[in-house]
Amino acid sequence: MKRVFFALIIVISVSSAASAQAFTFGIKAGANINKLTGEAFSDQFSFGYHAGVFGTIGMGKHWALQPEVLFSQVNIDTASNVSAIYNFDPNKLSQIQMSYLSIPLLLEYKLSKSIAIQAGPQYSILLNQNESLVQNGKDAFKMGDFAVLGGIEVKVSSLRIYGRYAVGLSNINNLDNQDQWKSQSIQVGLGLSLF
Fold it and tell me: Which pTM value belongs to this model?
């Protein structure tokens, strides 16, 4: 699945770049507001952050393609009954921290010169997780998370202000089939076009 997703990104990016009317590149950073669904996790959102790079490939007057590569720090609060569901020490698991390399591929529609809506898939690769989440030599979370996201971006000169919502489609529980773990995230941040 990872190879197909990356191949799709490369094919779309190369074909779009060949006929692109405009190309911009920049940096972005902001806050993540994360939650995992499942009995083992709190129903509250927790804060994290993201930072990375983006490129925008123009495809006509109203359309553009925006691939991104982001490092994301995800913090998740566990439920009070996590030790009853899984054999974890509740004192060590009040909060779970994970690092992801996220690769969104957004299709953008420009409503005006400064406002655009964006939507598309995102694949996130788990870089690391809390060592306390290892049970019998098995990692608690799967290495990949596939999601869809949508949001809005406001452009003022070279500054970009954005907000988006991502919904995970993958069950990232790697321990058992007892509980479905799916991610949800709200991202808000600032971007700066460098050229």
Answer: 0.81
